[in-house]
């Protein structure tokens, strides 16, 4: 099959658009299908509907090459040999479980066009057991095709790098043939020495949620230590640094602060708990409930610091919030702890002004009543307190002395433990940070 295989990508959001452009850059002919005509029109012009470093230029380049096209017409997949399903699996509106509507309808929509010997490859994050049931469904509607599962581990902000040079490739397959097809498709990436892990369908699905649960656990662990440090008069940044030197622990993902957000970690741990309960293994994942609770508590702790510094009644105060996105180098505000804190302070009556280098428009869409500032200067002018909630590098580069002339009170809360405390203190600021004694 190799380089002459034609690929289709169903669902052109974050994952799909990245996968489509990256596979095209490896030399494949790729058609991306999405039901949203606006998104398809933008992508077809080589424009990215979201911010992701490096993907904009790659997309434009691949569109220009002629190998990559986008359409709303599902019949376009009839030419393809391998079909990657990259649609979203959001948290359902009425509970913790994942909503599988889009995955099911994507597979149903392509079924009539699947050619003999073609392979449907799920990439979306799904509850364990989904792949097996979709495979059964396909065996009835399109017996000429097979189904595999190939979870992705890309991080926003590093999407291209994580797709083209991943730290491992995991494929869930029911037979050797499906594995061979995927080996052909990923040959250029395997050639880089990327570890290749063959699993059965349920294990492949589980690898993904287990990885995200572990990452969430690491973050909540350090945030729990931050709570204890606050109570005991310790410093969580020193603690994290010290335990991180043990290679069994590792220093990454031990950044204490306002916790994890985004379109993956929060909803994935909740969906995992819901699925475990269905499977009769509820107790095994009870700890994830605590991970979720610690994570949400970090937001409340920041609000408590604001109140204890200013007053219970926040109405008379202007609060400057630096950062709206769930992490830097992204314009994603889904389940963003920063934006949630800003909205809660606004709801409590404070005059909140939010700045973000990339996330103002998405944030405004979600919270039209919040005030937004285009520049940091405008945001902090006359502020009674600054909250640093997303660790964009431009915030680390701020000069505390200069900022000191703009604000009303020189008080800052570092919600990400990313600013240089001594620098701010030397410039006369009262500096609070989660997990660090003042
Ligand atoms: C996460 C995983 O890291 C990816 O491996 C996975 O593929 C992806 O979800 C997914 O399921 O699609 P992402 O959502 O892009 O990637 O974000 P992360 O880099 O994991 O950060 C998640 C959140 O944790 C952010 O809000 C970040 O600020 C927070 N975080 C991260 C901390 O609070 N402390 C840390 O030490 C690290």
TrEMBL record:
<keyword id="KW-0520">NAD</keyword>
<dbReference type="GO" id="GO:0000271">
    <property type="term" value="P:polysaccharide biosynthetic process"/>
</dbReference>
<dbReference type="Pfam" id="PF03720">
    <property type="entry name" value="UDPG_MGDP_dh_C"/>
</dbReference>
<dbReference type="InterPro" id="IPR017476">
    <property type="entry name" value="UDP-Glc/GDP-Man"/>
</dbReference>
<dbReference type="InterPro" id="IPR028357">
    <property type="entry name" value="UDPglc_DH_bac"/>
</dbReference>
<dbReference type="GO" id="GO:0006065">
    <property type="term" value="P:UDP-glucuronate biosynthetic process"/>
</dbReference>
<dbReference type="InterPro" id="IPR008927">
    <property type="entry name" value="6-PGluconate_DH-like_C_sf"/>
</dbReference>
<keyword id="KW-0560">Oxidoreductase</keyword>
<dbReference type="GO" id="GO:0051287">
    <property type="term" value="F:NAD binding"/>
</dbReference>
<comment type="pathway">
    <text>Nucleotide-sugar biosynthesis; UDP-alpha-D-glucuronate biosynthesis; UDP-alpha-D-glucuronate from UDP-alpha-D-glucose: step 1/1.</text>
</comment>
<dbReference type="Pfam" id="PF03721">
    <property type="entry name" value="UDPG_MGDP_dh_N"/>
</dbReference>
<dbReference type="InterPro" id="IPR036291">
    <property type="entry name" value="NAD(P)-bd_dom_sf"/>
</dbReference>
<dbReference type="InterPro" id="IPR001732">
    <property type="entry name" value="UDP-Glc/GDP-Man_DH_N"/>
</dbReference>
<dbReference type="Pfam" id="PF00984">
    <property type="entry name" value="UDPG_MGDP_dh"/>
</dbReference>
<comment type="similarity">
    <text>Belongs to the UDP-glucose/GDP-mannose dehydrogenase family.</text>
</comment>
<dbReference type="InterPro" id="IPR014027">
    <property type="entry name" value="UDP-Glc/GDP-Man_DH_C"/>
</dbReference>
<dbReference type="GO" id="GO:0003979">
    <property type="term" value="F:UDP-glucose 6-dehydrogenase activity"/>
</dbReference>
<feature type="domain" description="UDP-glucose/GDP-mannose dehydrogenase C-terminal">
    <location>
        <begin position="320"/>
        <end position="421"/>
    </location>
</feature>
<dbReference type="InterPro" id="IPR036220">
    <property type="entry name" value="UDP-Glc/GDP-Man_DH_C_sf"/>
</dbReference>
<protein>
    <recommendedName>
        <fullName>UDP-glucose 6-dehydrogenase</fullName>
        <ecNumber>1.1.1.22</ecNumber>
    </recommendedName>
</protein>
<dbReference type="InterPro" id="IPR014026">
    <property type="entry name" value="UDP-Glc/GDP-Man_DH_dimer"/>
</dbReference>
